[in-house]
Design a protein that fits this description.
It is built from no helices and 9 strands. It has a domain of about 80 residues: Jelly Rolls. Strand 5 and strand 6 form a beta hairpin. It is mainly β. The termini are far apart.
């Protein structure tokens, strides 16, 4: 069963992104924060050592570390991201991630509207 997003799209609201996150002992857990046309914000929690293999996205992606650290590879370079760091990934650029410690991050995906014909 799919859970609802933490924030509704039709009202102003607040959520504490670093709190309410249960420790992940293995694997990866995701929670939608906000979903709207052309925009998706998701909170991901990774157990230490978990990886996302190299992939691409048609969306523009912003990755913000909330808790922990990760090795994030994008454009052939690996960056060690720490709490408060923000990384931009342009559309269709291959990227991958490895959680160095237990990790919570926010991924914002912005997809442009379809071109009008």
């Amino acid at each position: 069963m799919k859970s609802a997003a933490l924030l509704a799209t039709d009202v102003a609201a607040f959520c504490a992104l670093a709190s309410g996150v249960a420790p992940v002992t293995h694997g990866i857990v995701s929670q939608a924060v906000l979903t709207a046309p052309g925009l998706r914000v998701t909170r991901f929690s990774f157990a230490r050592g978990q990886e996302l293999s190299e992939h691409t996205s048609p969306a523009r992606v912003l990755v913000q570390v909330i808790v922990g650290s990760c090795a994030f590879t994008v454009g052939g370079r690996t960056h060690l991201l720490q709490p408060g760091d923000l990384l931009h990934v342009p559309p269709r650029l291959p990227h991958a991630l490895r959680a160095v410690t237990d990790l919570t991050l926010i991924v914002t995906q912005a997809t442009p509207p379809p071109a009008e014909e």
